[in-house]
Amino acid sequence: MSHRLKVVKLKSGDSLIAELTESNKTSLKLFRPMEIKYMNFVDGLGRRHEAMVLTDWLKSTTTNEFVLDKDFIIGIFTPNPDVIKTYSKQKQFDDRNNETMDETGFANLFSDIEKQIKNMSTNDILKELKNLEAEEQNEEGLQSPEDMIRNIIQENQKEKLIDEEADPKYGTSYCDWSPDPKDYLS
User: Fold this and answer.
1) Would you say the C-alpha torsion 115, 118, 120, 124 has a positive or negative sign?
2) Start-end ranges of CATH 2.30.30.100 in the chain?
3) Which of 1, 54, 75, 185 could, after both became Cys, cross-link 90 (CB 3.0–4.6 A)?
4) Element (DSSP H or E) covering residue 53
5) Which residues contact 38 (CB under 8 A, 6 or more apart)?
6) pLDDT tens readout for residues 107-164
7) 142 and 89 in contact (C-beta within 8 Å)?
8) Distance between start and end Cα atoms, the chain
9) Cβ distance 45 to 175 under 8 Å?
């Protein structure tokens, strides 16, 4: 299947990833096209990150196939392995949920992750975090939502492990101080 996956850049500026099922002189037939979007965000330590998000390009329809006129296409490219992996995960996620995620769906997702974390011992969590650090150093690829949440937890753990006396920069950032004014009243 991955040899049929293509990234299609459109004149509108959209980038799609889909299975190319048919091609002729004037059009392409795409199966399960997803739009590729990039989001920028800043983590709790002020570092900038970029994350790729795939959204079902045909989510407001009842079909999974689309015939695209070649006049609207700028180029067709082979996706890199990270994009293929993310596409596969997103398809599995969409198939599992089979409907758009609402607040309840996100609450359930985070609840499941929270249960997994609670069932892990501290040593298991630290091992998992070390594995994530090693993976991040080895590849600068895309992260699944679960990995992103683990990274956030890891950053929170680091903040808790700061030894105020050992770190000469402690107290110089607004993040080192409580936002609650009551904490400063005696």
Assistant:
1) positive
2) 1-100
3) 54
4) strand 48-56
5) 50, 51, 52, 53
6) 666 677 777 777 777 777 777 777 766 665 555 555 666 777 777 777 665 555 555 5
7) no
8) 66
9) yes
